[in-house]
Each structure stands twice: as structure tokens, then as C-alpha cells.
Write a structure and sequence with these properties.
With 126 residues, the chain is an all-beta fold. It contains no helices and eleven strands.
Length: 126
Amino acid sequence: QVQLVESGGGLVQAGGSLRLSCAASERTFRLYDMAWFRQAPGKEREFVAAINWNGGSTSYADSVKGRFTISRDNAKDAVYLQMNSLKPEDTAVYYCAADAARRAVVATTRWTFDYWGQGTQVTVSS
């Protein structure tokens, strides 16, 4: 079973940047599509970005397009989320997730993903 550990969260002013990292415990990670989700207080967990197993395909929520970039380094068993031009509404706990199924199109729905990290808090002040 893959274990995922997120890091890189913190407090940043609006307009600033953060880079989240997610480290996987197993090399089978390299076969999995990966995604970032987030959950703000009182709200449901929502999709942010996803990347397929070889990094050749990505998908983004409309709210983060042009500001966030998902990437992966399979040699390091890691996936990243570069977040630029942060807004207060980006404040949430960010979760890394892995989809063990091989799909033609990368998934964006949370129930599709098999493994989850514990989350990292991102707070954007105005």
C-alpha cells in the first residue's frame, strides 16, 4: 500500500507563491495517476489538479488554471504543486492522492483515488 506524505504548506500573503510536495513510499507510485485536492473549512473536498502516470497529461480545476502547475518526478517518487498568484480563497488543507487504476483519461473525482496523504495546510492572507 502506497503511503503519501505532503509538505510545503504554510502562511503566505495574497499574490505570493508556494510549492507543495508529495512523497510516495513505494516505487509503484510511478504507475499511478496523481492528483491534488483541497478542503476548506465547512466545504467539501474539491479537485485541484491531476497528472497521469508518465506526466504526459494534466488537468486543472477552472479556479486554478494559469496559476497552479502540477508536475512529477518519478525518479524521486514525488509529485509537486506549484502555486502562484495565491488568493485568500485558496486557503485550505491540500491533499495528495493516488489512483492505482490505469485510465485513458486522468480522473478528477475524489472517489476514484485509492490512496491519500494526511494533508498540508495552506493559508493565504489578504
